[in-house]
Amino acid sequence: MHPLESNESDESWIDVTVPIRNGMLHWPGNPEIVVTQTEHLRRGDEATVSCVSLGVHTGTHVDAPVHFIIDGAGVDSIRLDRLIGPARVLDLGEVDRIRQSEIEGREIRAGDRVLFKTRNSRYWNEKDFRSDYTCLVPESARWLAAQGVLTVGIDYLSIASMDSGPETHRALLSAGVCIIEGLDLSGVGPGLYDLICLPLRLEGLDGAPARVLLRKSRLADEQGTRGSRPNPPQRRL
What we know:
Elements: E1 14-15, E2 34-39, E3 49-53, E4 61-63, E5 84-91, E6 97-98, H1 100-103, E7 113-117, E8 135-136, H2 138-147, E9 151-154, H3 165-173, E10 178-181, E11 191-199, E12 207-216, H4 219-223
Parallel strand pairs: 5-7, 6-8, 7-9, 9-10
Antiparallel strand pairs: 1-12, 2-3, 4-10, 4-12, 5-11, 11-12
């Protein structure tokens, strides 16, 4: 994960997408990620052509309502204004569960796009799946839905724990809250950002891999950041 440097440091987009690669970390029971070259220049072929086999909830991805709601909307029906616009990164440190007490004092309001940075972001360098990842509890999901947020994101393969996945997801998805999972926020600090998240346009499906970019918002200098920790060095495009 080494994004290229940009000469325009103040305007740089930061790639918070987990690269898709052969054999990468995946959710237990989901399809493994397999990358092969069906043709290759080094084998004398006219071109290099790759084949990628993966589940739609691989790496950085967006969940659709139909993932947990019968007859819910597919990922291609999600309104893009949920995924493009101002967003706020909240650094929650070492918490193991995101409870309502962790977030209710952080000025979360209707129309917000909120990305939770947790200890999860450092797990992307590990080979094996971590079942003790930080997650959002159902009570917090219901609270966020009641606040009218547009989008919630987190830095591991699921926003919910392994034992309360349906309840947490349904609380958000049934309220029209978009879910972004699998972010790598290790290179960004808390504060205000511009967000671009574009899932693949997979017709009617329950999710899709996405490319997600953040750029420090100009509003940050005027309003100040509302996170809890200073910004670490940022990886930039």
